[in-house]
Amino acid sequence: MDADLVLYGDVVTMNDSLPRAEGLAVTGGRITAVGPRAEIETLIGTGTRVVDVGSACILPGFIEPHGHPLEEAIVLGPAVVDIRPVTIADADAVVAAITDTVADRGAAGAALNGWDPLLQKGLPEPTLEWLDTVAPDHPLVILHNSGHVAYFNTAAAAQAGITRDTHDPVGGSYGHDASGALDGTAYETPAVFTVAGHAMTIGDDFPALLAAECARLNAAGITTVAEMSFDPRMRPALKAIADAGLLTTRFRLYEMSTPARTTEAAPGDGNDLVRQIGIKVWSDGSPWVGNIATSFPYLDTEATRGLGIACTHGHANYTGEQIHDISAAYFDKGWQIACHAHGDDAITMVLDAWEQLLREYPRPDHRLRLEHVGAMRPDQFQRAADLGVTVSIFIDHLHYWGDVLVDDLFGPEHGSVWAAAGSALAAGQRFTFHNDGPVTPANPLRNMQDAVTRLSPSGRVIAPQERIPVDAALRAHTVNAAWQLFSEEHLGAIFPGAYADLVVLSANPLDTEPTSLSDLKIRATMLEGRTVYGELSAIG
C-alpha cells in the first residue's frame, strides 16, 4: 500500500532494534516502515506527500509524564493572573501586579498564581494583615508557584466558607495564629482547591483555553501529556473537546485520591487519545515552603528565616499507614498509583508502605510511581528499582533553584545532589523527567540539558557525578515516559505500528554540544502524521 507521508532525514528512533534510520513512512496516522532511504522509496505513490527534512532530525514526539495541563489551561487563562518567576522576576513588579489586579477585578475578586520569594527576592511576607490591606473589601487569593500553598484574605475565606472552626481536610490544612484565628494560609491540594476553587472553574471558554495549552505543549515538541491531578468533574468537558477533534496532544489521566478512596472510573477507561490510567497520592509537599519530610534540616539562612523554616525538617502529609491504606484501596482494583514524594524520609515511608502493599497484592507489572524525588538517595533509587517502583524526576529544579538548593536551603551535602538522575541511572531505573506545569514551562530539551550538565543559574556544576549521557536523557522524555504511562505499545519510539507522533528538531541532540541542547529548535510537531506545530514543508 502506498504511504500517505514519507519523511527523509536523520531519524533517531529510540528503538533499540534499529536506533537510526534514513526515513519513515506513515499511513493512516501510523508508522508503516522505518529504514534506509531506498527501502522507504518503494512506498511512494502518486498521492504520497514526500518531505526531506535536510539537516534536521526526526524523533518520537516528546512525552511530558507529569503535568497539570487542565489546571494550567485555566491558570494561564484570563481568570488567573500569571506572576510566576518565569513571567515576573522582580518583587516590586509582582506586588504591583497584585494591586493592579485587585483594582481591576473589584467585587469579582482577584486570583494570581506564581508567588515565589526564593526567586523573587524582596517579596513582603504574605500575612493575613498584608493581604487584607491590599484587598480590604473583595476576595484575594495568591497561589504559591509550587501549588502547595495558597494565601487568602478575609473576604476570600468568607467566600469559600472557611472559618477558624473549619476542620482541616484530609491531606491538607489551614494555618492559624496563636489565638486560633485563620492566618490566611492553606496548605496542600485539598485546602488550596477550597480557597481557590472559584478561580479554577470550567467556563464556556475552556475549549479555547485547552487548545491554547495544547499549542504550548506542541511548541515544545510534546505530543503526550499526563494530567496528574485529574478531577473527574472535568471528564464531560474533556470528552466533549476530544470528541470535537480539538485536542492536539494525547492525555493520560491520574485521578486525585479522595477521602472516600473510590472512583467511578475503571483502569484504562478511554482510548489512545484520552485514557485514565492511574491514581495520584501526595506524601509530602514542596521544598520551597518547608513541608517536605527529610532526615536533614533546612539551613539557618536569611531565606529560611524569612520563610519560617530555619532548622526544621518539614513533615509528611500522611502517615505510612495512611499511604498504605489509600494505595491499597485503589491498587486492589488494578490501578497504577503515582505518589508525590520529595523528602528522603517521605520516600522511605512510601517505599515501606508499598513493599507491604506488594506482599499483600502481588502484581508482576505494577509500575508504581514516585514523583519529583528531589532528595531521593542512591540506596532509595536501588530499593525502588528492586521493588519495581519507577521514578519521575523534576530535573528543572536545577535550572531555576539550583543555587537556592545549595546556598539557601540545604547546603552542599544535600542540596547539590538534588534530582539525582545519575543515581537513578546507576540503579537501573527507567526514569523520566517532567516540568510539573504550571510550576515551570514544559521544556523537554532543557530538561535534558539540565540532566546532562547539571548547571545552576550561576553557571556552576552541581554534583557532577549525577550527570547522565544525552541518550539517557532522551529516553526520559520518549521511550521511558511511554512505558511509565503504559503506552509503550504505540508511543515513545519510531517503529512500524506506532502512532506517527513525531518531533522534528533543527539538529540531532546526540550530536549537539550538551550546553546547547535547549537551543535546538522545534521545527515541527506531528500527531498521527498531522502537523500540529511548525511548517513541515518548509524544513527541507
Q: How would you describe this protein?
A:
It contains 17 helices and 21 strands. It is globular. Strand 6, helix 3 and strand 7 form a beta-alpha-beta unit. It has 540 residues and is α/β, with parallel strands linked by helices. The model has no long low-confidence stretch (mean pLDDT 96). The strands form three sheets. An eight-stranded parallel β-sheet has the order 5-12-13-14-15-16-17-18.
Topology:
Elements: E1 5-12, E2 20-27, E3 30-35, H1 37-41, E4 49-60, E5 62-67, H2 69-75, E6 81-82, H3 91-105, E7 110-115, H4 128-134, E8 140-144, E9 149-152, H5 154-160, E10 173-176, E11 182-187, H6 188-196, H7 206-219, E12 222-230, H8 235-243, E13 250-256, E14 274-282, H9 302-307, H10 320-331, E15 336-341, H11 344-360, E16 369-372, H12 378-387, E17 390-393, H13 397-415, H14 421-426, E18 432-433, H15 444-453, H16 470-476, H17 479-484, E19 502-505, E20 522-527, E21 530-534
Parallel strand pairs: 1-4, 5-12, 6-7, 7-8, 12-13, 13-14, 14-15, 15-16, 16-17, 17-18
Antiparallel strand pairs: 1-2, 2-3, 4-19, 8-9, 9-11, 10-11, 19-20, 20-21
Helix pairs in contact: 2-7, 10-11, 11-12, 15-16
